[in-house]
Amino acid sequence: MSTIAQISTPLGSGGIAIVRISGESALEIGRSLFYCKKLQNSDILPRMLYLGDFELDDATEKCMMVYFKAPYSFTGEDVVEFQIHGGEYLAAKVLDKILEKGAVLAENGEFSKRAFLNGKMSLDEAEATIDMIMSTSDAQLKASSKLAHGNLYKTVKEIQDNIKDSLASLEVTLDYPEHDDEQTSIDDVKTVLTNALDRLQKLQDTFSEGEKIRFGIDVAIVGKPNVGKSSLLNALIGEDRAIVTNIKGTTRDTLKETINYQGLKINFIDTAGIRDSDDAVEKIGVQKSIQSIEESDIILFVLDSSEDMDKEDKELEKLLKDKKVIYVLNKSDKKNKLQLPNGLYVSAMNGENIEKILDEILKRTRMDKIDYSQLYITNKRHYEALKSAINSIKQVLEEKIFTTDIIDMQIKKIWQKLGEITGETANEAIIDEIFSKFCLGK
After folding, report:
1. What CATH number does the domain located at 215-364 have?
2. What is the pTM of this model?
């Protein structure tokens, strides 16, 4: 493969910028542009920082150079990195000189892709690395860190190895039926698959929590006009984002805001008041509100505690049937008239009991007891691969008539599906798509 180069730090002014080279000619190119007094090519030791000068056309940049010898580098190839002063133009000039010496410009994620191709990381570890980079909460960072350290790979690989061993035993029966008991081999396969099914289902079951860890808990704030939905949103996020007036129908579109609470993201969607209206724009807002109800993990059903529930409230309550609903009785700073045993009495105006809503959201979505020592499936692609493997295992175990050749074919299918997670059997299009999500220089 060609030798690649790219700037590995964000463009802009900063303390330092790093320009990375990877490939067979990395050291040769790096050394041809770097001068260090008393240092010869033979003197360059891996993993040592050297202070010297990088030769530009009409200037000299004093910088640091470090060499990582293959296979003991991030990519598994020879890697040279220059740590230079953090100027955008300067970094571009350094990169240009490296390209002049024969390196080619690296594409998005190409360093990481080479790490994968050279066996330095599995595909699931690469995806977890993206999630770590993109983390916006403690929960997401912790979960993706566990995946990036190969915990999912180790689990899936162990299951694959067990299946592969049983497959090998079964194929011996096919090749030498006179030396092996076919029924014993089939029984052994069933035992292995039953154990694999149990482990894979436990992994799959974590996806509900895993999605919330990665993307956050979606909470729709729902109610008729003028019960204080927008005021409640402002109180929950701690700033004035939604317009608050006494005029009905002020909110005509959904407004989404995210906060971090107890290390988790909570995505609040302030919805338009749901009511019959002749206003075309408000009708669209109401329709979006109904859509938000369908898509949210939990609903905050906001009621005016100073009034009894009216027809509009009760019609809306019917719409929320079979949903996870928290009854929020707003305006508790006024005289309470509405009595609901399970309702949370709050005041969006003075902030009373606002934190109780947040605690209840975590409790009702079972996100208050997240165990970060556990492995969570946070990636839809991994979930689908697990689902497919589980279905294939069930098909084998539910077969009433077993033949070794059919079981042999099914086991290979299961092994391949699990290999899509680690990358062993993932096709090139999937691999390219995953690494294209990385930034330049990673």
Report:
1. 3.40.50.300
2. 0.83
